[in-house]
Structure prediction request, 80 residues.
Amino acid sequence: MTTVICVNHTDRPAMGYCAGCGKALCASCLVRLSTGNYCAVCAETPDHRPPSARGRRARTWLWVGLAAVVTLVLLLSRLL
Prediction:
């Protein structure tokens, strides 16, 4: 029989899973809330879900698009 190991402590068996991100956690890593068990990161977010990197990527593409538009406007103003 295999034992599931804590994500943070490889020498401890997991006692449960985070309801937000699904990580296996030992007793000292589990944060018990009225809505379920969570890891420390998910327990501190308002919706008890892991923060996503999507917002950061979207912001990067916004700046790339803005730079492209500015470059296009400068090139067109030189040609006209």
